[in-house]
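User: Show me a protein chain along with its predicted structure.
Assistant: Here is one chain, sequence first, then structure tokens.
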Amino acid sequence: VGTSHLQLASFALGMIGWILCTISMGLVDWRVWHVDNTTIISSGVAWVGIWKVCFISYIHVSPGYKEQFCHKFSGYDSSIPGEIYAAQGLLVIAMVTGLLGLTATVFALRNISMRIRRKIPITRFFLVGGFFYIFSGLCVLIPVSYNFYSVTHNQSIAFPPSYYMPSSPVAQEAGAAIPIGIIAAILLLLSGTFSLSCRFSVTTNT
């Protein structure tokens, strides 16, 4: 009873963090590039994500119409930096491990709500859930930090000609995906800490 709020907080933070992780992974605006040549990139702004790069073009897609052109990254594009492919893998792992953490926490809360007083199953569920949350948070934090570093140092990417992208922008800034990812990582790490705290509290009380 004394740890009920902590248990619910662990689940709530884990759920919100997992949802934000999924949203961040799907967004294309990780890095916002500002370019001076608007012949193809009509708006002068391009969005570089971890899965694809997009920009608005009045010429390339449909002449005279405002259309968004996107080019998905391929594993064959050796010029794309490894941090992008690493971010793809780490965020997929984060999404899966975050979901496993939620599942373990649900089982633990179920045992408590049904007043199952066997110490080992409850403590193990909280321990496993906490581990998955923390691991998921780290898998989000690494690529988000790496991309934020690339933005602050205005690092370039040697895109292939088929991408219609310059190799370097005039300036770039962090897109919405980066702060969302940072919040997701913080919530998942907090959820893992709370889950482990629940585990030790349950062990002490039982």
